[in-house]
């Protein structure tokens, strides 16, 4: 069957995300958050990551533009790319409840996206799911 979950959170990883991770066909959850991963993920090498249901690239040094497939993922595919350094030109024009972009852009202080986040009301089912996930993964 192959690996379904790959969690390398806070492992002090650095450099680009290895392209072979995108080729892991059975991957359901990928968490590479809180490392020092860098580079542009808006390339063909990473397009297969769109098949990963739970994608967490939080708090790295990722740059370039946010891939279009991340911006248009189904609501059942949560994605967290907060605290990175993406180019402002790829900033979405609308909020999506399944895409966390907080402090993700190089010019965040001048960003209109902050207004969107302040006005965004998180649906109750998302809060319940997050609390359950947090309890399960943070003993």
Automatic annotation (TrEMBL):
Its main location: membrane. SUPFAM superfamilies: L domain-like. It comes from the Eukaryota. Pfam families: LRR_1. It is found in: Membrane. InterPro entries: Leu-rich_rpt, LRR_dom_sf, LRR_Rcpt-Like_S/T_Kinase. It is a single-pass type I membrane protein. This is Probable LRR receptor-like serine/threonine-protein kinase RFK1 isoform X2. It comes from Prunus mume (Japanese apricot). The gene is LOC103325080.
């Amino acid at each position: 069957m192959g690996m379904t979950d790959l969690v390398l959170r806070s492992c002090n990883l650095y450099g680009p995300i290895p392209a072979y991770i995108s080729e892991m066909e059975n991957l359901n959850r990928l968490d590479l958050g809180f490392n020092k991963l860098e580079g542009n993920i808006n390339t063909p090498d990473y397009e297969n990551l769109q098949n990963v249901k739970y994608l967490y690239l939080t708090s790295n040094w990722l740059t370039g533009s946010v891939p279009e497939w991340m911006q248009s993922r189904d609501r059942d595919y949560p994605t967290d790319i907060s605290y990175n350094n993406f180019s402002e030109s790829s900033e979405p024009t609308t909020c999506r409840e399944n895409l966390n972009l907080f402090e993700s852009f190089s010019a965040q202080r001048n960003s209109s996206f902050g207004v969107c986040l302040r006005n965004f009301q998180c649906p109750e089912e998302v809060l319940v799911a997050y609390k359950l996930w947090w309890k399960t993964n943070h003993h």
